[in-house]
Amino acid sequence: MSAIREYYSITELTREFGVSTRTLRFYEDEGLIHPVRRGRTRLFRPSDRHLLKQILRGKRLGFSISEIQEIIQMYKAPPGEVGQIHLMMKRVEEKRAELRQKRRDIEETLAELDQVEEGCIERLAELGVNT
Asked: Per-domain residue ranges for the chain?
């Protein structure tokens, strides 16, 4: 059984999550994580590590920093976790709808490209050029 760590260094977190120190400083500047300062050294608590994990997951899912911030803040204020879960479900559905629209747009563009290509092949055939 491993002991719970009191702090993580910036280097440990950058290696673990594959992000730059600049990224961690950005999340700190945005108020998403709050490392302890010892002189110029930043020490990250397990709660910061957990938040970082959630932030990166949110980014992978396509959420903006402000959307991630809203979800994190919801957890800290009433109605707490229940409110956060409802908000997260709403955001997930919005993101899903956005992605479905992008998929429709891509399908339409691919169909148009197919038509253009078909037209080119037909025209080349009319000109007696083999494709």
From this structure: 1-60, 62-131
What stretches of 18-131 show up as alpha helix (H) in DSSP?
A: 21-29, 46-60, 65-76, 80-126
For the record, the structure tokens of 24 come out as 């961690």
Tell me the C-alpha distance between 11 and 21, whole Å. 8
Burial class (CB in 10 A: 0-12, 13-18, 19+), 42: buried
Contact 55, 68 (CB under 8 A): yes
Q: Could you read off the pLDDT of 17-48 as tens digits, one per residue?
A: 999 999 999 999 999 999 999 998 999 999 89
pLDDT tens digits, residue range 99-113? Answer: 999 999 999 999 999
> What does pTM read for this prediction?
0.67
Domain 1-60: top CATH class: mainly alpha
Distance CA 90, CA 88 (A): 5
Supply φ then ψ for residue 41, to 5 degrees. Answer: -90, 135
